[in-house]
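cache lookup: miss for this entity combination. No prior model stored, computing from scratch. Input as submitted by user K.M.:
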Amino acid sequence: MRYPFPVGKSDFIQGDEAIARAAILAGCRFYAGYPITPASEIFEAMALYMPLVDGVSIQMEDEIASIAAIIGASWAGAKAMTATSGPGFSLMMENLGYAIMTETPIVVVDVQRGGPSTGQPTLAAQGDIMQAIWGTHGDHMLIVLSPSTVQEAFDFTIRAFNLAEKYRTPVVLLTDAEIAHMRERVYIPSPEEIELVERKLPASEEEAKLPFGDPHGDGVPPMPIFGRGYRTYVTGLTHDERGRPRTVDAEVHEKLITRIFRKILDHKDEIISYEEFMLDDADVAIVSTGIVSRSAIRAVKILRERGVKAGMVKINTIWPFDFDYIEQLAERVGKIYVPEMNLGQLYHLVKEGANGKAEVELIAKIGGEVHTPMEIVERVVG
Amino acid sequence: MMQIRLAGIGGQGVVLAGVILGEAAAIEGLNVLQTQDYSSASRGGHSIADVIISKEPIYDVMVTRADVLVALHQLGYDTVKDELREDGLLIIDTDLVKPDREYVGAPFTRIAEETTGLALTVNMVALGYLVAKTGVVKKESVEEAIRRRVPKGTEEINIKAFMAGYEEGLK
Amino acid sequence: MMYMKSAYEIRDKYLRKDMLPTIFCPGCGIGSVLQFTLRAIDDLGLNQDEIVWVSGIGCSSRVPGFVNFDGLHTTHGRALAFATGIKLTNPDLKIIAFMGDGDAAAIGGNHFIHAIRRNLDVTVILINNFTYGMTGGQVAPTALKGLRGTTAPYGQFENPFDIAGLAVAAGANYVARWSVFNYLQGINSIKKALSKEGFTLVEFLSPCPISFGRRNRMKTAPELLRWYQKITVPLAKAKKMPPEELEGKIVIGEFADRDRPGLVREYEAYKKRAKKMMGWEE
């Protein structure tokens, strides 16, 4: 297989470009999108690469159609992705819910910019955390990942595809305008260095008849791809294991929705990822995600130089969130600071996790600039 | 770690110079981060490129205290001069920037015009001067980076401008 | 006169028995149009496993649930956007989109015109009953002036969409409109539509006595069919009529039959061009 970019070596590229290359290497062969700052570079890279690798890249009429097209592509057997920013992400909420309800593996990239509404198109923010988790209506479960470097933008994109395939679920990659446009040295592995996960396909006629069942007890039904003779019916209505609409049966609804929760929450140890820095003896912890984590790590180093026993956790998986871990952390430290580029979103998750065992303080910043390390240090030392 | 900021106005190729410097560092296997900031006017507004080069992992997302500031225009200089460390190195185009502190430099734009006939190769002249003065990357790495990043057919002219700046920096 | 198989034979071959009965009300025309579509598929000898039915939301959109094919019952108005992903991923699949007038022309209007502009390879079977049947009889964007619905109880005051006309203007390869009464023309049109590349549309005026007819003094399907007879004008005749005489009428017939390359063929050529431009292929 020939790739339209160098593999097995390092390159100096922007975050958006890293996401596109990772998608190609993850086996993504269908991309649909709509132009939007600061995510357009992902689309432009996919437009350049896809025809060369026999994939599809298509510009749809809006973001609603973009996510719809990738869901269709996924049912036809392709790994599929779209990328957008806040205004487009808002439009995608309808069909994000459809993808959750129909258990369709897709990857949706949201390159966060200042909002609400058109807001600050070119500047970074972290204001879509709660939207990524709770933006679509009804009870639902999905996976949200958050990179902090261009290398992580690459690595987490591969992981997003693997998790989507493994758990037959949409995965949101929540990045931001800063990572989108910064260039860093990134290692682009060759295909044999990458471990890919493919969706479960029906192993028998019996399994194929239960496209929304649980034949393996892991909550993840095999996916009967269209065109392979299974005659699968897929609907966004509440449906039974065979896919038949059962819209007024409470038991069927509860069984379906709790399984969609369970298939992710039962495997949260595998899905959840975070990294600790200098936490062993810490009595102050900083919890952050995405781009802000970089400043938080530097802040910890400065605090250590000043004799403050500080440590930090970088949250890689925003959802499902590891509330239990935060509670244990809260038991170890007296205080937790949450710097984030919004007026308090991750903060609420951390506060719920801390469960009163440590004081949790928000270090909010909006307007487009990442916290400087000193802005965090000064809040911690008071 | 070295924090380098390049400042000028739109059209001077400041961002491309930053990208090429970053690419050169990446070629050498160094950790590197490059970001940019332009005012909304694509021509004539200020244009800033940040490059941070380090053997250690880089956590910064922008230059906070520059070790080196390269200023190609008064507007760019005025916008960012306060972010240069007190003992930092200021490199200027001596025809276009009137600084209020110690500096080194040369008339980069004039050198560009004399060497290649094109004022817009000023970015490569300044880059050559910066590399000669700081030794942050090898000149061979920059040559390779130029070949990768400039439009096809303009490699030699850009390298020529880079070398002119490099020689000037060695003086 | 063509030979017609019995309706039971068609039913047994193509419907999911475990999904019956359908949700459709007595006198509803969707079942008739579904039968026309299945007969067309049967007559053409198409492979059941190589057809995917897509739909949005509404009464007509429930059809893919009753037929024994792969089916994607999606969100309101979006069926054609989903279809774009299916078709481009697996061009061997034939796509049938079963849509309603509100679904295609109101909430899905943008997807509809862009799918046609791209000449997406899909056959749209469109049920036009002037109303939102499932939600209880609100006016649809096709409702003729003066027709009543629960959201225009004093009679529609807006202009109606001519969906077939819209499709012709946007570039569809095949466009026809009939009422369910014109069953032979209907079946033949669907056969033609299914045989062609690119975007094809067959629109049917279809009775909805419960949600629409009751509010417009036509409580039964026969009354609605008689009304269709009155308001429809065959294309050949319409061409000779002055515009003022066509006011309040609906023209039926074949409006477009052309052979522009479909999206799949265009994208295949685009891939070749890309590889050539990048020097990957001669």
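stored under new cache key. Chain A has two domains: 9-193, 273-381.
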